[in-house]
Amino acid sequence: RWLFNQAVCTLYAFCSVLFGLCSLTSLTVLSTVCCLKVCYPAYGRCWDALSVLLLCVWAYALMFATAPLAEWGSYGPEPYGTACCITWKASSREATLYILALFIFCYLLPCLLILVSYSLILWTVRVSRRAVRQH
C-alpha cells in the first residue's frame, strides 16, 4: 500500500509525469532535429537554438503535468496502491478530456513524429547511397 499522505502521492505522481513527458518530448525533439540536419541541411540549424528547444520541452511537459493540479484530471494511488500516478478511471468529462489530450499530444503525436523523422532519415541515407554508387 501507499505509505505516505495524499500530498506526497500528488508530488510523486507529478514528478513521474513531468520527467516521463520530458524524456519522450526530448527524444521527439532530438529525432526531429536529426531529421532536419540529415534531410534538410539548409533548415537544420536547430542546434543554434538548443536552449530554446529545451525550454520548450520543459514548458510542454510542465503544462501537461500541472493540469491535474489545476483540476483537469487528477493524481491518485495506482490500482495496486503501491505508487501514485494519473487517475486513469475518469470520473468526470474534464478528466476524460485530459486523458484523451495526454494520449494524443504526449504519446501518439511524439511517437508519430519520431517514426516519421527516422523514416525520412533512412530514406535519405538510402537515396544518398544510390547516388554515391552511380558516381
TrEMBL record:
<dbReference type="GO" id="GO:0016020">
    <property type="term" value="C:membrane"/>
</dbReference>
<dbReference type="InterPro" id="IPR000276">
    <property type="entry name" value="GPCR_Rhodpsn"/>
</dbReference>
<dbReference type="Pfam" id="PF00001">
    <property type="entry name" value="7tm_1"/>
</dbReference>
<feature type="transmembrane region" description="Helical">
    <location>
        <begin position="97"/>
        <end position="125"/>
    </location>
</feature>
<feature type="transmembrane region" description="Helical">
    <location>
        <begin position="52"/>
        <end position="70"/>
    </location>
</feature>
<keyword id="KW-0807">Transducer</keyword>
<keyword id="KW-0675">Receptor</keyword>
<keyword id="KW-0472">Membrane</keyword>
<dbReference type="InterPro" id="IPR050125">
    <property type="entry name" value="GPCR_opsins"/>
</dbReference>
<keyword id="KW-0297">G-protein coupled receptor</keyword>
<feature type="domain" description="G-protein coupled receptors family 1 profile">
    <location>
        <begin position="1"/>
        <end position="135"/>
    </location>
</feature>
<protein>
    <submittedName>
        <fullName>OPN5 protein</fullName>
    </submittedName>
</protein>
<dbReference type="GO" id="GO:0004930">
    <property type="term" value="F:G protein-coupled receptor activity"/>
</dbReference>
<keyword id="KW-1133">Transmembrane helix</keyword>
<dbReference type="InterPro" id="IPR017452">
    <property type="entry name" value="GPCR_Rhodpsn_7TM"/>
</dbReference>
<feature type="transmembrane region" description="Helical">
    <location>
        <begin position="12"/>
        <end position="40"/>
    </location>
</feature>
<keyword id="KW-0812">Transmembrane</keyword>
